[in-house]
Amino acid sequence: MQGNLVEKKVVFNKKVAKDTFLLCIKSKEIASLAKFGQFLMIRLNRRYDPLLKRPFSISFIERPDRIFILYRVRGRVTKEMSGLKEGDPIFVLGPLGRPFLIEDNKRIILVSGGIGIAPLIWILKEHPERAILISGYKDMDEVIRIEDLLRGDYQYRIAVEGDSPFFKGTSVDLFKSYLEEKGEKGIILSCGPYPMLLEVYNICKEMDIPLYLSLETHMACGIGLCQGCVVETKEGYKRVCKDGPIFYANDLIFRE
Ligand SMILES: Cc1cc2nc3c(=O)[nH]c(=O)nc-3n(C[C@H](O)[C@H](O)[C@H](O)COP(=O)(O)OP(=O)(O)OC[C@H]3O[C@@H](n4cnc5c(N)ncnc54)[C@H](O)[C@@H]3O)c2cc1C
Ligand code: FES
Question: Which one of 43, 90, 146, 182 has the fewest beta carbons within 10 angstroms of its own beta carbon?
Fold first, then answer.
């Protein structure tokens, strides 16, 4: 989808963990068009201040008209976003990017680090019987509880590096232990910081498991025009906003 920013209204914006918020906006059109893995470009005002819009994954949808964005406060725009209240305007463009196509019947293992959980939640919500989400956090106060986002029962496992009642370690440690325990493979989709994605890639390569990655880069236009978001692939540079953000990991070139 291309086009102009459209004004929508905030339904709610609530804190769900340290520096982490769940924003709900109302749009029947986006809810009917959106697919797994896609994102929106967002601006908080009609002025060009800051100049660039910011990309956010569509974390999940409740049809007919609720769009959920899970975000962590990072800099100027996300700090301002955290102050949004019910009824405030928000300007969005999308849904954008190539969707993630889920193969039939296979087990889906979702692996995230930190706020990398955001683009994976919708798949967990729509495929509760065959999807499991393995999420890692640095500290207990960063942990995102699934019951703060979704109603129902889900296969959600948590790893925390600091002190906590959960698995001690990273999401990659928990992912490895899960593979050993269950001997299950299926299909993997992962999102998080680059070093974590590299570790997940190395595990999947060694075990010959298909892996897809949801990549995050800096973006300017979000619609394929500026080349500001490119990543290196075996077929040359590709735009994360237009050719991604989901990529088959074997197509990418990783730099240690
Ligand atoms: C396709 C896509 C989907 C995304 N989905 C989400 C999401 O669902 N939830 C969420 O919280 N964030 C998501 N992000 C990241 C989000 O776009 C940034 O956090 C946001 O743009 C920060 O804006 P800001 O003005 O608050 O921070 P800025 O002031 O722009 O930046 C603050 C600091 O964060 C760094 N930074 C900003 N963006 C990135 C990035 N993409 N990668 C690495 N470092 C960065 C900057 O270099 C700077 O140091 C996504 C990014 C992409 C490309
Ligand atoms: S952000 Fe402009 S081409 Fe991707």
Answer: 182
Residues 6+ positions from 195 with CB-CB distance below 8 Å: none
Give the pTM.
Answer: 0.96
- The torsion angles phi and psi of 77, rounded to 5 degrees, stand at -70, -45
Ligand nearest to the CA of 239: 2
Q: Which fold has domain 6-96?
A: Elongation Factor Tu (Ef-tu); domain 3 (2.40.30)
The answer to whether 29 and 75 are in contact (CB under 8 A) is no
- The residue whose CA has the least distance to atom 20 of ligand 1 is 54
CA pair distance 10, 81, nearest whole angstrom: 10
Which regions of the chain carry the CATH code 2.40.30.10? Answer: 6-96
Q: How far is CA 105 from CA 108, 129, 130, 186, in A?
A: 9, 10, 8, 9
Ligand 1: residue of 20, 48, 54 to mutate (most ligand atoms within 8 A of CB) is 54
Q: Is the CB of 243 under 6 A from ligand 1?
A: no
Q: Which two tokens stand for residue 207?
A: 């075990």
Determine how β-strand 230-233 pairs with β-strand 236-239: antiparallel
User: What's the CATH code, domain 108-214?
Assistant: 3.40.50.80
Please report the sign of the dihedral spanned by the C-alpha atoms of residue 142, residue 143, residue 147, residue 152: positive
Domain with CATH 3.40.50.80 in the chain: 108-214
Spatial CB neighbours of 54, under 8 Å, sequence gap ≥ 6: 41, 42, 43, 77, 78, 219
Enter the tokens of residue 211. 């892996």
